[in-house]
Amino acid sequence: MEFLRNVLAINSGLDVAYIASGALMAMRFTSPLVRGFGWAVILQGAFLFVFDLSFLALAMRQG
Q: CA angle, 49 as apex, 45 and 17 as ends, to 5°?
């Protein structure tokens, strides 16, 4: 269980990096296609962040 909690904690940090890279794409580039990809990455990263944190909270309650 400890290994799972560590993996989920690391994944949550990587999700933040995922969101940041999407924000960089969405705000830095002028191409509508790249900006759209950036927003898609932000959305996916946000979902993964919530999913990983929820699963981490559940794993921590299990002990």
A: 55
